[in-house]
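Support case: flavin mononucleotide complex. Customer-provided input:
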Amino acid sequence: MASNNEEAMRLEALGDLRRCLDLAREIDDLEVVEGADPDLEIGALYELSLEKENPPVIVFDQIVGYPKGFRVAVNVRSSRVFDTGQGLEQVQKYRKHRRPHPDPIDPVSVESGPVLENVQEGDDIDTLKFPAPKWHGDDGGRYIGTECMVITRDPDTGWVNAGTYRVEVHDKNTLCAFIEPGKHGDIIRKKYWARGEPCPMVVTVGQAPVLGAAAASTAAEGVSEFAVAGARLGRPIELLDGKHTGIPFPADAEIVFEGFMPPPSEVSVEEGPFGEWPGYYASNSRPEPVLQVKAVYHRNDPIIVGAPPMRPVLPGFWYGTGGSAHFRAASLWDELEAAGVPGIKGVWTMPGGGPRFIRVIAIEQLHAGHAKMAGLVAAGCGSAAYLGRIIIIVDDDIDITNSAEVMWAMATRWDPKTQTDIIDGCWTGYIDPMLLPERRAADNMTNSRIIMYAVRPYHWKDDFPKVNMVSREYAAEVRKRWSGKLDFLGDP
Ligand SMILES: Cc1cc2nc3c(=O)[nH]c(=O)nc-3n(C[C@H](O)[C@H](O)[C@H](O)COP(=O)(O)O)c2cc1C
Ligand SMILES: [Mn+2]
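Agent response - structure generated as follows:
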């Protein structure tokens, strides 16, 4: 079990980016790189760092063409500072009921904060003064926002939403955000446009790690990610109100852009291409609405936190193969239980599918039709609906963290014809490389899902062939007798 000290360190780091970097340095998990070029070199070094399963936090300083102190940090949330274990143990730790404060803690308003150390308005606005990298070779521009927050307020209810959506620097006072249809930020901005108004919006770049986690999570409609983050920390997040828009943002954010996004019928620019986490440039480039910046706020020596997507096969790619995928598995587990599916013993995202494409659920089958309940909820619930493809249900004797065991369950307990559902018309996005060309052309952002019930069929499960395997009890007995005497058994 983690000691109280480790837990205290984790909370401190979660709640404060600069403290997080200090703590990473203290445990020798931080590398400073000086003299790298924001044009591809930072991106390449980041990608190469992911060949290691546990890459260090990298802070790029003295970036070519920019003043010393204007920094870019990557691998922040995968730092060993946040080490919360492995496998299903880690998934369990991310589950809601395991948290000390499961209920949201509302943010509080404050009057000032370090983000106000530098303020630019009017002609002084220059979004190009920050070292936003061009991350991948075929990217169409420089992306300042990867692990960022796009903050909007529902004009009907006052609900403040914060979502992580990539943000490209277009020119001195224009940014462009890529918000997939159906995301909360998209639903909210369309409400303003329907009234003929521009959408007030704030983008923050560099913020407490807990906010990056909350903004990328699927908090339900009406629930503010700031309140979710507050609950994770056990204290309220402190927010300043934007002078031009009234939209709140964290008082200790590194860089904040405040402005308005008019409807695309008034103004739009080409966004992308951008290398995306499924491993492709699927969304290519297309016109997107813009954020017209009215104010820039930033701390002295500001830090851009970067988390650009990479192919989800790189061992160190936390968003694709590591903790972030476990986080999404935990949300799905919570939602399956909330929907009343009993007997869930584990939820996993299979490597190769990134955090979303391949979901595996282990159940203790309690009745006929039980596996189907789990599969259908997983295909449609809020945390898993977007950008899914494959759902695999297995019995609870399968170790779902071991891909070979999952494949074995499919190879031996699954009849493709009778134990499969294919459902079409499900929610997907522009970044889906298998969005069919005719659907993409029609902005019909839907794909199909396969649910494979790789479980012993319930009605004959008691007659199903026995597994050929030494019983755990007898294995323990034999091990006890022989270990220490046989090298292949190891020490007792
Ligand atoms: C690093 C990172 C980058 C992301 N980029 C985008 C993006 O460009 N567009 C998008 O729609 N979702 C993106 N997402 C996923 C959203 O953050 C996620 O769907 C979240 O639930 C959105 O918030 P919302 O539920 O309030 O809409 C990204 C997630 C991460 C972790
Ligand atoms: Mn939301």
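Residues 323-338 form the longest helix (16 residues).

Case will auto-close in a few days if no follow-up is received.
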